[in-house]
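User: Can you help me understand a structure? I only have the sequence.
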Amino acid sequence: MKTTTRATLLTATLLASAGIAHAEGELQIYNWGNYTSPELIEKFEKEYDIDVTVTDYDSNTTALTKIEAGGHGFDIVVPSANYVPIFVEKGLLMEARPDEMENFKNVAPEWVDVPWDPGRHYTVPWQWGTTGVSVNTSVYDGDVNTSAIFLDPPEELVGKVNVVPEMNDVMALAIMYAGGEPCTEDRELLRKVRDTLVEAKPKWMSMDYGMTDKMSANDVAASVNWNGSSFRIRLNNPDVVYGYPKEGYPVWMDSVAILSDAQNVENAKLFMNFIMEPENAAMISAFARYANGITGSQEFLPDDMKDAPEVNVPEEFREAGTFLPTCPSDAQKLYTAIWTDLQK
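Assistant: Let's start by predicting it. Here is the structure, written out as tokens:
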């Protein structure tokens, strides 16, 4: 897990020039690493005179474990859609009723009555995207639209592949590669998935989060990765392309939620409403390079996002995408067992 970082706090000089002696409050945000726009945080701090701290995590499992243990001190968390019902069932999220907030009218219709949070009583959209593979074509110039990139790496990529430590994304890719559907409990197919992953692991370089910098610098040649991260890599390193596995790939949405034991509830609600403002949602996307689910934000987005293949799924690969559901507990236990074997 990443270390705690201060997110663009107001400097003493700025406070003095604004005639403000002390911040009126604080907000503790727990979010994925390298995923929070510093400009967005700075704008929020200035507008509400709230001191914001951002702490990073590297997977949904890491976030859930930390929060469930208690004593974390966070106000906001940003789980993926398939984890929201788990957080709710465990009593970890506050029913903050963002659907009654002023800016909720800006949430795009398709993201309002979602199965993981019907009517949006707990969460608001942060960003959404896909999980595929990032590949440096100067190292490997073959087919990149396949999960074989990490499950059966071509010779050029052996020892140069990374796999992000997000269990559900990796398991979904492996299950679909084996011909199954996400959340399957078919034990014969899952044995095949386990064997495929275990046999592939010696050919990997690492299981690490945060490939944006490493692939930009050519330190890693390929990785299971998210589309926005791949977009950011390509802007730094044009040799890197994003592949949509034809065997199937996950589609996801991460959403902002207030924790049930939050200490700064009103400030957290201010932040929820703040990020549903189109111009602010665009700041989130402009930094991390994912779509955001807020109507009207498009006009504020950078021009290079309007036709980027990482953000706009090419027609030929759209049918292969599957929005990850929340798997039943029995399936989750099977996946966790496989994941545990993979860590050995």
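Now, to help you interpret it: The first helix runs from residue 12 to 17. The CA atoms of residues 278 and 297 lie 4 Å apart. Let me know which part you'd like to focus on.
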